[in-house]
Input
Amino acid sequence: MLNKHTDYIEILDTTLRDGEQTSGVSFATHEKMSIARFLIEELGVDRVEIASARVSTGELETVRAIAEWATAHGCLDKIEVLGFVDGEQSINWIKSAGCRVMNLLCKSSFRHVSEQLGKTPEQHIADIKNTIEKAKSLNMDVNLYLEDWSNGMMHSRDYVFQLIDALRNCGIKRFMLPDTLGILTPDETSSFCSQMIEHYPEIHFDFHAHNDYDLAVANTFEAIKAGAKGVHTTINGLGERAGNTPLTSIVAVLHDQMQKKTHIKEDKIFKISKLVEMYSGIRIPNNKPIIGDNVFTQCAGVHADGDAKNNLYSNALVPERFGRVREYALGKMSGKANIQKNLEALGIKLDETEMKKVTERIIELGDKKQLVTPEDLPYIVSDVLKNGEQEESIKMINYSLALTYGLRPSASVKIEIDGETYEQTAVGDGQYNAFTKALWKIYTSLNKATPELIDYVISIPPGGQTDALVHATITWKFNGKVFKTHGLDADQTEAAIKATVKMLNQIEKI
Output
């Protein structure tokens, strides 16, 4: 049963601080500003951690720019900066940048205190208190990161409680519990967070997960069940090593699985995810929940059929919630229902016979392991229905095309004309040119006239986002008549060859 400590969960997004620690990611000033504004104004996060203190002069100027904007828009308290127990250096840096909330990083693992700092717990606690007092004297709010808290709970729990006991009355707004190395299991997260909340029910605890074992979302789920009042996320799960808890995933879990409330506007999620993808250069995996390209795409025909019959294959994650739409993939797994859904979206109506032909063609393309998109569909319909009905007195039996570096392209062609087969080979300036030369050899040997090629156009569906289909349109002149034939295939040369065979059958009637 879910814990009912609070119905509202606070969201801190740390894409601009922890997320920027992703290998190869560095946001420019205008990019950080754009992301920060979107997170607060449009997405609705409660807090944004935008930087670490003392990183660089350039970072200082970036933080100043964001702080100036936040001050002008009355949301400076939502802007937070990571600081360190370093005397007054971090405090002065954050203050000079115009910010007033410091997320102070302290050591909550005894090994870190003794081996990294070379201090006793009492000495480290005294240093933390001095830093907090100085920040308070400058009218700054302080949240406290308990760095490596997960290891601290495993190996030095008494020190963790000693630390919190000493600091609980120092005016810290939030104690933040990081699984710094991403080592926790959901059971451990539940146990450790429950212990913290039972010992200190008056304290606001945040949970900060890392995804090293792919358990960040599961651990965040358990932390909330245990009573954590806030969680830390990044857009697209950016972060050091395997990243942090993705905001997209945990928000859906909070709203649907836990019946918790947030200020997040779900219909803005996809837009911010694509914005961060563009700025970071880190691609969103196609199967990433909520935001991946494939996650609202049905491939199996039986699923599309079920959707048409009272949404039998739908769940609460409807795409419209997240500013997206349901799609139905076209390929070898497609059934009539998939194709019908796409045709309806395009305003195309087909009868049963036409649907069967179009379905067969899509499956044929899918067998070539090609992606077939809705943009391809009008091309397929046109090719199958408008150009596929003529009787063929000339049929392509076989052809072989060769392209070898340093040698001219060659083609071997075998065709059937009125029941008789003919074969020729030729070289040309390109594969298609070699193909037509071999054809004309056959026609010349039969004293048959050949057409003049007037124009040759290759196109793909609008948008250029598919590698599935190429549409060849060839203009011919024969016996004074100019006409066009079309071919459609995943390969450019094959599309042109199909258009050529159609032409050969048409000139038989001229």
